[in-house]
Amino acid sequence: MKLLDNMTVRFSWMLVLAAFSYLLIVVGTMGLYSNHFSRQAFGTLNQLNVAQTAALNRAYIDMLRARVEMDRAAELIRAPSFDRPGPVIEQAGMLLKSADAAF
């Protein structure tokens, strides 16, 4: 307690300023540290999101192509034609399997 009694006003204000400066540096460093790791986390989430979106897009495209092929096969069965619907149905089945694998 003797040390606190013998302190001058100038010295006490210097200690307060030093303590606040130290706190400011510590808080700033923690902010930069958390900013760095949050940027990495968002980068990882972005990569996963892009991969999932690409897989869903591929599955959606294959489903649409299979649907078009099934419509074409139904049209070949409905109307007389020289083309056989068997290969078209097989192609639609392969597209459905591809969409299932992509999903």
TrEMBL record:
Q: Kindly state which keywords UniProt assigns to this record, in alphabetical order.
A: Cell membrane, Membrane, Transducer, Transmembrane, Transmembrane helix
An example Pfam family from this entry, by short name, is TarH
- According to its record, what are the GO cellular component terms? plasma membrane
One GO BP annotation here? signal transduction
Q: What is its main location?
A: membrane
Q: Per the database record, which ranges form the Chemotaxis methyl-accepting receptor Tar-related ligand-binding domain?
A: 4-103
Kindly list the places in or outside the cell where this protein is found, as annotated in its UniProt entry. Answer: Cell membrane
Instruction: Cite the InterPro entries for this sequence.
Output: 4HB_MCP_dom_sf (IPR035440), Tar_rcpt_lig-bd (IPR003122)
Q: Which Gene3D superfamilies match?
A: Aspartate receptor, ligand-binding domain
List all membrane-crossing ranges.
12-33
The name under which this protein is listed is: Tar ligand binding domain homologue
Which species is this UniProt entry from? Answer: Modicisalibacter xianhensis
Lineage, please?
Answer: Bacteria, Pseudomonadati, Pseudomonadota, Gammaproteobacteria, Oceanospirillales
